[in-house]
Design brief:
alpha+beta, five-stranded mixed sheet, two-stranded antiparallel sheet, 9 strands, 16% helix
Length: 97
């Protein structure tokens, strides 16, 4: 949660990623805060992006679940990757098959 302009608490949107870590410039592209990877790298190297309230200049900075990314008045929290369970083995068939 974070405080907004009038002092009340607001939720930070969560971006669930498929795999961590993810590079910082890819997050900016993924959530459409920029239109291209080149633009993402430009704004990062220009000191316009914050990770956990610290200016980040590394375009390929590894971002993990729990990190908060800020750019141009927007904030997003990176969520844990979703786990997918794949069951393999014997399939269950009815006696009629």
């Amino acid at each position: 949660m974070m405080k907004n302009m009038n002092g009340s608490m607001t939720e930070i949107p969560v971006l669930t990623i498929e795999q961590e870590p993810i590079e910082l410039y890819k997050i900016l592209k993924l959530i459409n805060w920029v239109s291209s990877g080149g633009e993402a790298k430009f704004v990062i190297s220009g000191g316009q992006v914050f990770v956990n309230q610290v200016v980040e200049y590394r375009k390929r900075k590894k971002i993990y679940a729990g990190d908060i990314v800020e750019f141009d008045g927007n904030k997003i929290k990176v969520g844990k990757p979703k786990l997918v369970t794949v069951h393999r083995g014997n399939s269950t068939k009815s006696p009629d098959q």
